[in-house]
Amino acid sequence: MFASSPRLCLSLLVVAAGLTLGCFRERTPPPAFRFECEADDECLALVDANGDPVLDADNNPYVERCISGLCQYPCAGSLLDLLTQSSACPAEQAGATCFNGTCSNLCDAAGEVESCSPPHRCLDFTSFELFSGMEADLAMLPQERPGICGQRCDDDDAVPCPTGQICLSGLCLPLGGGTTGDTGDTTDTGTTG
Amino acid sequence: MNTAPSTRRAPLLAACAALSTACALQQPSARLTDARLGFAPVLAARTSFESEAAERGAPPADEAPRAARGPTELVFWTGVILAAVGGGAALALGTTARVTEGKVISGFEGDGLSRARLDELNDRGAGLNNATIAVGALGLVGAIMATTAYGVDYTRCGKLAPKRRRCDAAR
Fold this sequence. Notes:
Structural class of chain B: mainly alpha
Number of helices of chain B: 7
Number of strands of chain B: 0
Shape of chain A: globular
Oligomer: heterodimer
Distance between the termini of chain A: 79 Å
Largest sheet of chain B: none
Number of helices of chain A: 3
Number of domains of chain B: 2
Largest interface: A-B, 37 and 51 residues
Strand content of chain B: under 5%
Distance between the termini of chain B: 62 Å
């Protein structure tokens, strides 16, 4: 019956294709994504599923700040926190650790899709002298070439290291060699390499 | 002899036969016949009711369904137009929705995105979803209308479904 009416078949086909294709789905930002901003008021405080603010160890809410044009959580720790499993970054941000003054997420430097938000890029751990000789340990991570989203502190447009840290080979490290773990201001008297 | 009376009755029988068949001899000229049923004169001959109707120019009783062809065709083509327009619009809106979703994805994957821009894209995407559903439903209604009208026309031996049945024999 429909063979003699190609227009009808075509119409049905078009309707079906339209209904199949016509679906916009809201996407959840990936963990390493950071929203662009121009001022702090474009950034938000971290809230839980109930809409209540998430508090840090000092009962202060995690509030994003506009750092390097991205909404980020400032922190006073360092990448050494990753080794000691003592991150001051919000646990709600899966995989986030303090790196060069901001909470940053791990990434795969071998990934075809850029998972970091510019000006951040996925920095391969092996590009830092701190991790030289730790290839076997890095191989235990799920990423093919484990790295972290961020900027080297010796980049021209990098933000200063947190107070009490110095920039060594692109990595902000505490002068005393220990780990800090408190959130802090990253834009004041930091030292760049 | 016995043959004399029968010889005398012959003219009388001829006169009676002529009188009794006179109406019949005149009738064929006034009655309409169906040429397709010529092999069976009894079937070919129409009743006086049919003949009178034909003389008045009224359609025969067996062509009554053909009178409904007009509305059926109207419904069919209205449905086709609705399905085409609705389907085309759904396709266009769906494509736009996918493009919008692609902008969100590319924003997450390196192009960058602000919260305001994400909210704008999400609102646009939700609006496009609603519009796609609306025009898609319109197209679906049109498709159902066209299908139903086509089916009805098929059953009634209409123009929309020619050569699919021996409709001529039924008329």
